[in-house]
Every structure is written in structure tokens, then in C-alpha cells.
Amino acid sequence: MRDQADVSAFSEFVSTRSARLFRTAYLVIGDHQLAQDLVQDALVRTYVAWPRLRERENAEAYTRRVIVTTAISWRRRRSFHEQATGTLPDLASVDETAWIGARDELWRALRLLPPRQRASVVLRFCEDLSEAETAALVGCSVGTVKRQVHLALGKLRDQLAADVVRPDRTAVTP
């Protein structure tokens, strides 16, 4: 049975940190509903581990690590990539500006990265964590984070450059 101090401390943690945790989960997993499930799962695991946490100020880092490792294990499942749809949605014609299109292209390219590379890029550049903090969350060495980020950025450059080349192989100039 949990004492009231633990329950109230965890409740305060959830209320103050859940938005940041959701942002991390969304950037790592790339789907709104899956990110909600991922945060919920991570918070349940954090709640179970709450009495064992020695330094409560590191609870967010612990929960982020749970998010990253759970997302990586989810992506390994065969069923993760299957998406059943009954009917195709109607696509409305929307006047998108150039920056929205560029952001979408970057997002599509980011979603094609392997889970560890994607997590490394998200944690380094979207969450603005250091290489050491990223390594601690992903569970690898700093050198591995550097390598994963290097490979990911190379793949993103190649993918985005391929999207900018027209079928007749002439580059599009903005």
C-alpha cells in the first residue's frame, strides 16, 4: 500500500511534467494516439518504481528513458507497422505554404529512420539534450549516440535531397 505522500508527489509530477513527456513521446513515436498510450504506459511504470526512486528530481529523466525504450520495443513488433483502414479518407485541397510542405517532408523522412537513430535525433535536437543525457536515456555510450545522429542526419540529407530532385534529374531551386 502506498502512503499518501507518495501518491500526492506522483500526482504533482504527472500534472507538471505530462505535457513535456507527451511531446517527447510524440516526437519519438510519430503518432498522436500512440504517444498518448506510450506516456500512459511510461507513467504506470514510473508509478510502480516511484518508491524505489532515490532522487525524485530525476523522475522525468527516468520516465523519458521508459518512453524511449518502450517506443523502440514497440517498433520492433511486426504488428506495429500494420494499419487497418476500412475506407480511405477524403483528401481536402488545402493551400499549404512552403514551410508546411518542407516540415511535412522532414517529418516523413524522420519517420523512416530506425528507432534508435530517430530517438537520438529527437532527444538531441527537439528536446535539446546533450550527447551524455541522450546516451543515458537511450542506454548506450556517447560515441554510439554520436554515430546514430551522424547516420540519421546523413539519411535525412539523402532522403530530402532525393525529394528535391525532379524525375528528369534536375534539381529544384527555391
How would you describe this structure to a colleague?
With 174 residues, the chain is mainly alpha-helical. The protein folds into 2 domains: 1-78, Rna Polymerase Sigma Factor, Chain: A (Orthogonal Bundle), CATH 1.10.1740; 96-174, Arc Repressor Mutant, subunit A. 68% of the residues lie in helices and 0% in strands. It has 7 helices and no strands. It has helices at 4-29, 32-49, 59-76, 98-111, 115-126, 131-138, 142-164. The longest helix is centred in the first third of the chain and has 26 residues, at 4-29. Mean pLDDT is 82; it is low at 165-174.
Topology (elements, then pairings):
Layout: H1 4-29, H2 32-49, H3 59-76, H4 98-111, H5 115-126, H6 131-138, H7 142-164
Helix pairs in contact: 1-2, 1-3, 2-3, 4-7, 5-6, 5-7, 6-7
List keywords for this structure.
2 domains; mainly alpha; Rna Polymerase Sigma Factor, Chain: A; 174 residues; 68% helix; 7 helices; Arc Repressor Mutant, subunit A
Radius of gyration: 19 Å
Would you state the CATH class of the largest domain? Mainly Alpha
* CATH level-3 fold name of the largest domain: Arc Repressor Mutant, subunit A
Main beta sheet strand tally, sense and closure: none
Which structural class should the secondary elements be placed in?
A: mainly alpha
CATH-defined architecture of the largest domain:
Orthogonal Bundle
N-end to C-end Cα span: 62 Å
